[in-house]
Amino acid sequence: MISNTNLKQVGQRSDVVVQATGNPTDIVWMRSAISSGPCLEPANQPYALAAIYYEHANKTASPKMKNSTAQADTTNPCANEDLSVTIPSFPIPANDPSATITMDVNATVNATGHLVWTINGSSFRGNYNNPLLLLSKTGNDSYPFDPEWNVYNMGSNDTVRVIVNNFSPATHPWHMHGHEV
Question: What is the 3-state secondary structure (H, E, C) of 127-156?
Fold first, then answer.
């Protein structure tokens, strides 16, 4: 368990909105530095690169990489972004949410010797014949609250604060495996 509360934890990300100011036929490169440091796994490739094709760009053309200099990353890779310098896309409406839920994330080895991730001590085991999101979309909320489904009924709360405690040995983003889109 990482005890320093300033270390990056599961699920932390920053999103940016980029305003396209080029011509409709332009192809440009976008680059992002990938953080690495003592609290993160080392990056084999220090930059994430993407070719951005504008709406009327020739999609079969190979973009030409222009010489540029990357901006030095001077942030502490083990610290959270200073919230005072961020601008949220949507304001956080309440200092005191109408509900708070705590989720303890951990990893354990099950009886068959396989690693499983748990939330509040329960691993996720989906029913592929009755997927939760499909049941909910069709208005069916009568499914059982099986602990292995990890369903939390938040009722009619306006705001919900979710506190995620990562007790696993990994600073790994929170996502699901083994599902089809």
Answer: CCCCCHHHHHHCCCCCCCCCHHHCCCCCCC
| Distance (Å, whole) CA 75 – CA 40 | 13
Distance CA 124, CA 26 (A): 45
Q: How many residues does the structure list for the chain?
A: 181
pTM: 0.51
Taking only the tens of pLDDT, the chain with its 181 residues reads: 333 344 444 444 556 778 889 899 999 888 877 766 666 666 677 777 888 899 999 988 887 777 777 777 777 766 666 667 777 666 666 678 889 999 998 888 989 998 888 889 888 877 778 788 888 788 887 766 567 777 787 888 888 888 888 888 776 666 666 554 4
Amino acid present at 90 = F
Q: Which helix (H) or strand (E) holds 107?
A: strand 99-109
Backbone φ and ψ for 48, nearest 5 degrees, come out as -95, 130
CA angle 16, 18, 19 (to 5 degrees): 150
3-class DSSP assignment, residue 103: strand
H helix runs in 42-128, sequence order? none
CA 161-165-171 angle, to 5 degrees, is: 120
